[in-house]
Amino acid sequence: DEQVWLNSEMPLAEVTDLLEPYPSEELNAYPISAAIKSPKTNGPELLRPIGQRLVPEYDYEIYSHLSLQGMGMTQARQRKLDLGF
C-alpha cells in the first residue's frame, strides 16, 4: 500500500481508496496553549500538554487465584482431617 501511496502517477481515486479512519478507541486528546491560535507564534512548546488527558489512561494488573470449591478438599474437610476425624 505504501508503494501505491507514494507513486505520483497513481490516479487519485486509487490513492484515496487507501484512506481509512484511525480507530477512535486508540485516540486521546489533551489541552494545549491557546497561543497556538496566533499565526505569529511558532515552536514545539505550543503542542506541549498544559493539562490532563481527556480520557484517563490506566495500568491494569491481571492476576488469578484458583481454588476448588464444592468438590474435593474443602476447608471444613481439611480441618476434620487435621483434627484426626
Please provide a written account of the structure.
There is one protein chain. The protein is mainly alpha-helical and 85 residues long. 22% of the residues lie in helices and 0% in strands. The protein is built from three helices and no strands. It starts with a helix and ends with a helix.
Care to give the gist of this entry?
This protein has helices at 2-6, 12-16, 75-83. By secondary structure, the chain is mainly alpha-helical.
Key descriptive features of the protein:
85 residues, mainly alpha, 3 helices
Topology:
Elements: H1 2-6, H2 12-16, H3 75-83
Main beta-sheet strand count, sense and barrel state: none
Number of strands: 0
Shape: elongated
Proportion of residues in helical segments: 10-25%
Q: Note poorly predicted spans.
A: none
- Beta-strand percent range: under 5%
Secondary-structure element sequence? HHH
Q: Quaternary status of these chains?
A: single chain
By secondary-structure content and strand pairing, the structural class works out as mainly alpha
> How many helix segments?
3
Mean pLDDT: 87
- What's the Cα radius of gyration? 30 Å
**How far apart are the first and last residues' alpha carbons, in Å?**
74 Å
